[in-house]
Amino acid sequence: MRKLVKSTLLPLALLYMFSSSCNWKETQPIVEEQTIVSDTLKHLGFQSPIFSSKTTNKNQHSTLNGAVSEFVWQIFEDKKGNYWFGTNHDGILIYDTQTLKQFTATDGIGGNAVRAITEAKNGDIWFGTSKGLTRFDGQEFINYTTEDGLIDNEIWAVEIDSEGVIWIGTNGGVSKFDGSTFESFQVPKPNLSNVEPMLSENRVSDILITSDRHIWFVNDGYGITRYNNSDFEFLTTENGLTDNNVADLFEDSKGQIWIGTFYGGISTYDGTTFKNYTKDGKIEGLEAYNFCEDRSGNVWFSAENFGVYRYDGKKFTQFTTKDGLATNTIQSIYEDHKGQIWFSTWDGISLFDGKEITNVSEKEAWTK
Question: Which are the contacts of 11, defined by CB distance < 8 A and separation ≥ 6?
Fold first, then answer.
């Protein structure tokens, strides 16, 4: 367990030095990706080696003062109003309502790829990184690894249940953490043929704790395993799931489960029946994820290369670069306390203020 006391979050001068070294990206013409070898690998954090340079992208948006060299995995606003950004390569950034500051592995966090952010009831912020589980208690970062009992250091999901137990999805399976002790939790897999895991057959890439306290696990290539505190149930293509390579799970305010997949588009599940909107022709894009429900009850999600969709309970509305998005490839969607919807793209961060989508820096000056 590694600790580093931080009474103030990085000196502003250091941040300025780092930002200045990356400012070239803000001023150079960027090309929109037209041909991508694997959208799936790109979403998982691997950059594609083949790009077309035919079209100049005029919509490049904020990269948080140049600090983000690739993309933002997660956007999160805590109870105090601090904005946290987990990146694919550049660690964590925080806007503490006064200044934007950056932390990397050298500052005490686990790894520089930060794929999960959540807040405990006591205000501690937890991060799932590429090299362990990291906690920030307001003063210091504390990192937990396999040396402390974590099942695997490559983390993809972090959720906290009603009892305060932290559930961690990793490349090697699931760990539970009560604040002092890690416990491995065995998630069974269905007996399937022709399974094609993307990274690891033991990887749990997403965890959803629903309002009925059931826990849903996404097993790499094995569909979904649902746990109800006593029994396990499998949801796969054999009983209605469109694709066993699940990308994202979400429960909306009505208790309906949204399922995004890599090859089967978007579905909803009411506990009995699956409904697939991609197959029905309501939306485009087989690879879909990044759910967010706004304060009006609209459900937002992204479709790889087709921008984002908003569902108001009756119809789907599509937003693309024509509507102001920096790119049609979205990595995360988040609503802040102002009701603004943030979109992390492959060319910076876009923002929807309820009327239009623009460069986030036009609405939040500190993101320039």
Answer: none
